[in-house]
Amino acid sequence: MTITNDFQSWVAAHQQRIEAQLQASLPVVDIAPRRLHEAMRYAALGSGKRVRPLLAYAAGEVANADIQRVTIAGTAVELIHAYSLVHDDLPSMDDDVLRRGKPTCHVEFDEATALLVGDALQSLAFQLLAEYRLADNATEQLEMIKLLAIAAGSRGMAGGQAIDLASVGAMLTLPELEFMHIHKTGALIRAATVLGARCGSALSAQELAALDHFAKCIGLAFQVVDDVLDTEATTVTLGKTAGKDAEQNKPTYVSAVGVAESRRLAAELHEQARAALERFGERATRLRELSDFIVLRKF
User: What would the pLDDT profile of 54-75 be if each residue is shown by its tens digit?
Assistant: First the structure.
């Protein structure tokens, strides 16, 4: 598996599209409260792989979706992701000082501002989903809003983070790790994929289920690779503090089964994810390429 120049061009073009929409959607810094708006832009702009919006774009291609609709949906998901990183880095959670190669939001500004940044980014995400037409009927669009709300809440990302915090110092089994990361990491990845598809022509329940299964598998693979990189890559490469999980005695795939078995598990999840796309043929080319990137990445 190799990352082709064509795929790299596709990624760059869509990253630029998301960056432009984020720039346009976030409040400008000369509107009060200026410090909060400056911090929101600091947290959300200028860096990041934008994996979740890329998954939305790729799934949108499966459903022949309008690219502007997918851009709004992908931007909303990225705002939720950005808020989660700001809150994850707080002293009361992971207590980190580096994110995406620069000081974390609470370090650059202050802890209270960082809390408000997360709150405001989350609110803005749902404002976008309500403000723009993303589906052909209101019922479908309400379902999309509900989907992201569940993915971000106690039955999704926030719930997974709560489990993660409660598990510090514990040795979790593989099923327990999977349950935690299906929520903490996987929920938003699944939401991004399904939202992108729902921006297009109606897919059957079986087709949506196949996309969701793809996203479930690749979301878990993403976390497994993250755990391996946390032990093997440098802080400079990662753009965040390397070795933080071990330092904080957090349960990871590496602590549970070791690096070699973690790599095998990531490869197995990768294979399952690609198998889920077989019914879509060439329409799922970008999803396959993204799955390769997620598993083969070095940062």
Answer: 999 999 999 999 999 999 999 9
Task: Return the structure tokens found at 85.
Answer: 């990183």
- For residue 99, the cross-strand partners are 102
Is-contact 68 90, C-beta < 8 A?
no
DSSP letter, residue 98: E
pLDDT tens digits, 13-49: 999 999 999 999 999 999 999 999 999 999 999 878 9
Give CA 85 to chain center in angstroms: 10
Q: What are the angstrom distances between the C-alpha of 227 and each of 152, 162, 258, 262, 271?
A: 22, 18, 10, 8, 19
- H/E stretch holding 1 reads none
pLDDT digits (tens, 9 = 90+) for 146-176: 999 999 999 999 999 999 999 998 889 999 9
Residue type, 222: F
Give the long-range contacts of residues 98-104, CB within 8 A, separation 24 or more: 98/235, 98/239, 98/240, 98/241, 99/239, 99/240, 100/47, 100/48, 100/239, 100/240, 101/47, 101/236, 101/239, 102/47
Tokens of 19: 């960056």
Band the pLDDT of 100: cuts 50, 70, 90: confident
* 102: phi then psi, degrees, rounded to nearest 5: -140, 165
Please, is 221 exposed, middle or buried when counting C-beta atoms within 10 Å of its C-beta (0-12, 13-18, 19+)?
buried
Domain ranges for the chain = 5-296
d(C-alpha 122, C-alpha 82), whole Å: 9
What pLDDT, on a 0 to 100 scale, did the predictor assign at position 85? 96
**What six digits make up the tokens of 95?**
């207590």
So what CATH class is 5-296? mainly alpha
**Identity of residue 265:** L
* Tokens 């935690």 found at: 180
Alpha-carbon gap, residue 63 to 73, rounded angstroms: 14
Alpha carbon of residue 89 to chain centroid: 16
